[in-house]
């Protein structure tokens, strides 16, 4: 009974030390090429069993080895005096130098032995493939390299396998891969090949080679029964590859296309509108504000098209930095009749495609004062307080512009089937924004003077004196100063005058523009239908109290800018002393 139990335990131990048939990876490796390698002298020799495998973990995208490679050997190699460090064939191909190390070699001894890797009678490549694609072996590689197992088999990485020989050369123990053997042989003028040709340049390099081109190394289809030269070993031999999770060899995968320049995002904007009230037959400027949470440069600039009364007005190149705003405006002329004008603004290249504006167009009505009569009276008249229409004679706004600041960067976007770097120079610059300030100011003045038919007026310094009942004339001069385009502003277009005898209400006179010189204008009374000579005058009432100022108020309006209307509140006065009856006398005709 004890013998039976012992036999069962022995079978279990043996089973635990063998690789199951379950493969977690896919092996791209072949092998062959036997030789009389197990011979030589005491100073230069190799023995069967003196083999191992170097394993590098390669990023499938960058083709870079991500950890220091690890060496698997079926027994400790404490006798190794010289090695060349843990450098992979891929790293040597990319320019790593061969550097000799002394008494620094270490390796991992797996609890389940590897099959024969290098032999003078050939190897079993099927068993090698089965071993290194097994879950057990891959987990050991994961543990030794400190790469999580699930990451390792995700398809993001490949394993690069390289056969190692442990050999006595010139009486010293060496560890070297096939690639290192070729490099070292070149360095010492064919010294390795002369002493160890059968193992160093035949059994070792031909123990592994690729079935399918991958990682920049080609498939090998040639003979295996000869001693290879160093260039062939470096380019084609001494390697195998394990892939995971359906990853394909690079030779099958099409190289990625070069990246396209990033497409700027569609601006994410909000709209802020105002109230739009205008007079008929007037040049006006209609504006609204665009705020954007995204950067708007020349490559994703917004275009606004105003559709007004059958005409289109296009404003292009609207840009602004992230989290800022920009006024958008258009200059147009209102119709001659009162109405509501529906303005549709279409926006290109933004999350909002339409802005709807309703403009109320009304007529500026003149309520002409009646003709003063000689018998009119107003015994309780008191000079009223002047109206305060408010002055708004200065406006300021700004406009964003930008220019591109280039930053040329070489971008690696992948590798071709040979592992060559694929790159392109891209401009990863940025927009630099500039905010230009603009302004407009309204200068206006008013002169109230005695009418042309006033015979007894006087002037005392800057003050005029006259008798009531005569006419007064006025001239309002305006000028708009600006540092912007003249298409962004208008001149003064209307002046409304009111009079003290009507308490600045009920009646008014709309002045005529008598001089129109661009943004400089002059205004006067319209011709008075009650004037015998059609003078531009307003008649003062005969009853106007003596020793009291006669004051006319003038409101200058309709100076339009992108930020609204400028206006000026003016007034001027004439001192009244006496009335026109005092200038008349009765004479006896002779």
Please describe the structure with a list of short key phrases separated by commas or semicolons.
rod-shaped, disordered N terminus, mainly beta, 3 domains, six-stranded antiparallel beta sheet, 8 helices, 12% helix, Coagulation Factor XIII, Chain A, domain 1, 590 residues, Immunoglobulin-like, single chain, 30 strands
Give an overview of the whole structure:
By secondary structure, the chain is mostly beta strands. The protein folds into three domains: 17-244, no CATH class; 269-363, Immunoglobulins (Immunoglobulin-like), CATH 2.60.40; 436-583, Coagulation Factor XIII, Chain A, domain 1. Helix content is 12%, strand content 38%. The chain contains eight helices and 30 strands. Strands 1, 2, 3, 6, 7 and 8 form a six-stranded antiparallel β-sheet that branches. Strands 17, 20, 23, 26, 27 and 28 form a six-stranded antiparallel β-sheet that branches. A hairpin with a 2-residue loop joins strand 21 (458-460) and strand 22 (463-468). Helix 6 (178-187) packs antiparallel against helix 8 (230-236). The longest helix has 15 residues, at 2-16. The relative contact order is 0.10.
């Amino acid at each position: 009974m004890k013998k039976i139990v012992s036999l069962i335990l022995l079978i279990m131990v043996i089973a635990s030390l063998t690789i199951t048939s379950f493969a977690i990876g896919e092996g791209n490796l072949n092998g062959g090429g036997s030789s009389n390698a197990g011979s030589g002298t005491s100073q230069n020799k190799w023995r069967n069993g003196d083999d191992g495998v170097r394993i590098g973990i390669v990023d499938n995208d960058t083709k870079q080895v991500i950890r220091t490679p690890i060496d698997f050997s079926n027994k400790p190699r404490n006798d190794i005096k010289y090695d060349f460090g843990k450098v992979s064939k891929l790293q040597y191909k990319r320019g790593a130098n061969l550097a000799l190390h002394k008494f620094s070699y270490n390796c991992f001894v797996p609890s389940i032995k590897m099959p024969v890797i290098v032999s003078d009678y050939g190897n079993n490549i099927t068993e090698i493939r089965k071993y290194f694609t097994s879950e057990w072996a891959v987990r050991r590689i994961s543990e030794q390299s400190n790469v999580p197992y699930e990451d390792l088999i995700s398809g993001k990485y490949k394993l690069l396998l390289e056969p190692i020989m442990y050999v006595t050369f010139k009486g010293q123990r060496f560890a070297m891969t096939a690639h290192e053997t070729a490099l070292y042989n070149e360095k010492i003028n064919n010294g390795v090949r002369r002493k160890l040709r059968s193992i160093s340049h035949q059994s070792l390099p031909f123990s592994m080679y690729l079935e399918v081109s991958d990682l920049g190394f080609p498939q090998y289809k040639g003979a295996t029964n000869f001693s290879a030269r160093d260039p062939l070993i470096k380019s084609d031999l001494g390697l195998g590859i394990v892939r995971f999770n359906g990853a394909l060899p690079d030779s099958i995968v099409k190289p990625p296309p070069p990246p396209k320049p990033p497409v700027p995002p569609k601006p994410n904007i909000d709209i802020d509108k105002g109230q739009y009230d205008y007079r008929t037959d007037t040049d006006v400027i209609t504006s609204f504000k665009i705020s954007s949470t995204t950067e708007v440069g020349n490559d994703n600039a917004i275009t606004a098209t105003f559709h007004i009364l059958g005409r289109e007005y296009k404003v292009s190149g609207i840009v602004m930095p992230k989290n800022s705003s920009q006024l958008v405006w258009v200059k147009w002329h209102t119709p001659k009749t009162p109405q509501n004008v529906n303005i549709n603004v279409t926006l290109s290249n933004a999350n909002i495609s339409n802005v709807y504006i309703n403009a109320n167009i009304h007529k500026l009505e003149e309520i002409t004062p009646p003709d003063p009569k000689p018998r009119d009276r107003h015994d309780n008249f008191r000079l009223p307080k002047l109206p305060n229409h408010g002055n708004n004679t200065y406006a300021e706004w700004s406009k964003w512009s930008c220019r591109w600041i280039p930053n040329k960067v070489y971008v690696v976007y992948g590798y071709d089937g040979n592992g060559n770097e694929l790159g392109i120079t891209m401009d990863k610059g940025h927009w630099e924004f500039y905010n230009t300030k603009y302004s407009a100011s309204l200068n206006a003045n008013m002169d109230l003077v005695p009418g042309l038919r006033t015979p007894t007026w006087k002037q005392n310094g800057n003050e005029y004196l006259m008798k009531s009942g005569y006419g007064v004339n006025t001239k309002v001069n305006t000028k708009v100063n600006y540092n912007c385009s003249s298409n962004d502003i208008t001149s003064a277009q209307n002046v409304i005058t009111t009079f003290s005898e009507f308490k600045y209400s009920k009646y008014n006179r709309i002045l005529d523009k008598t001089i129109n010189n661009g943004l400089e204008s002059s205004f006067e009374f319209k011709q008075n239908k009650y004037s015998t000579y059609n003078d531009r005058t307003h008649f003062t009432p005969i009853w106007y109290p003596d020793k009291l100022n006669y004051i006319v108020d003038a409101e200058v309006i309709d100076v339009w800018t992108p930020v609204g209307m400028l206006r000026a509140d003016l007034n001027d006065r004439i001192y009244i002393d006496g009335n026109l009856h005092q200038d008349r006398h009765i004479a006896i005709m002779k």
